[in-house]
Specification:
The chain has 64 residues and is mainly α. It has four helices and two strands. Strands 1-2 form a two-stranded antiparallel ribbon. The longest helix has 10 residues. The radius of gyration is 10 Å and the shape is globular. The termini are close together.
């Protein structure tokens, strides 16, 4: 994915679930996330996530 566990943890902190893919992308932009994370969020196959675990699992299943 091109993002470290620490960067992902910082990004996930304070998110309210369920959260949509679009809201995740907006938050990532607002918090200054790098291009790799933004690209990964745009390619997520699921439109909404009910927990941090669901999001982390979906991100870990992305190619690259």
């Amino acid at each position: 994915m091109g993002v470290t566990g620490m960067q992902l943890q910082e990004f996930l902190a304070g998110l309210d679930y369920p959260v949509s893919r679009d809201d995740l992308f907006r938050r990532a932009q607002e918090t200054g996330a790098g291009t790799p994370l933004l690209q990964s969020l745009r390619t997520l196959p699921v439109a909404e996530f009910g927990s941090p675990e669901e999001l982390v699992e979906a991100l870990s299943e992305l190619p690259g």
